[in-house]
Design brief:
The protein has 2 helices and 3 strands. The chain is an alpha+beta fold.
Length: 92
């Protein structure tokens, strides 16, 4: 998150004095607060979401593809032969 994504900017001194109030505000509104020290962004107070993490990247570094790679995909002709042979078993 970049500082421009925060709905509001609060100096650290004000944040210290109103911490619990600001936490409630973020929880109720769902909007983030950028906390600054001497005008420099240092932290972001943001709501916790209960959304499930996305599927992309979920298994990064957990799944290994063998060195020989994956089997090659069937061609359209090969699929047609597979379907035809499966249909032949149904008639017997």
């Amino acid at each position: 998150m970049t500082p421009t994504n925060a709905a509001r900017v609060v100096p650290a001194g004000e944040f210290k004095a109103k911490c619990l109030q600001l936490m409630d505000e973020v929880d109720q509104t769902g909007e983030s607060i950028l906390i600054t020290k001497r005008g420099r962004p240092v932290s972001i107070l943001m709501p916790v979401t209960s959304e499930a993490p996305g599927i992309c990247g979920r298994y990064k570094d957990r799944v290994r593809i063998p060195d020989e790679g994956l089997p090659k995909a069937f061609t359209a002709t090969e699929w047609a032969d597979i379907i035809d042979s499966a249909g032949a078993d149904d008639t017997e």
